[in-house]
Amino acid sequence: MIKWVFQKPVMNFILYIQCTAQRNFRYTNSLADAIKSKNLKTDFLDLDNFSEPMLIDQAFEAVRSADKSCVFFSIEPAADTKPFIKLATLLADHPEKSLILINGSDERISRLLFSQEGFSYHNLSEKEQIQRLQEFLR
């Protein structure tokens, strides 16, 4: 199943998730572009809360099988985060191989991901997020 998105085993994986209250067809994202420009040796995927369930499942499998994964959540007020609860649970269960960066807030996601210290950060600047990512992937 994972081979549909990724052609080789995933060692490091970056997932960018945008949760909006309404469909937002924004085709550029400064943080995602900045991450891609760093030429890190990782696979990268960006999703939103309106993505097809099959694609969300592929992202879940990539995070599960990766040696290290970094997940960026960008959450707007009143956004539906239910599609990512299963993923947040997986991340909370394996904090040693995950880095979570969240902009915005959601009670369910926060409850899962901030239950343990040291692997998730909230509302950092874009520069700080990229710095944390680079440190984590070393």
Report on the architecture of this protein.
By secondary structure, the chain is of the alpha/beta class. It has a single domain (18-137), classed as Alpha-Beta Complex (Protein-Tyrosine Phosphatase, Chain A). 36% of the residues lie in helices and 23% in strands. It has five helices and five strands, in the order βαβαβαβαβα. A five-stranded parallel sheet has the order 2-1-3-4-5, with helices on both faces. Strand 3, helix 3 and strand 4 form a beta-alpha-beta unit. Helix 3 packs parallel to helix 4 (107-113). The radius of gyration is 14 Å and the shape is globular. The termini are far apart.
CATH architecture: Alpha-Beta Complex
Low-confidence stretches: none
The radius of gyration is: 14 Å
Average residue-wise pLDDT = 84
Descriptors for this entry?
5 strands, Protein-Tyrosine Phosphatase, Chain A, 138 residues, globular, five-stranded parallel sheet, alpha/beta
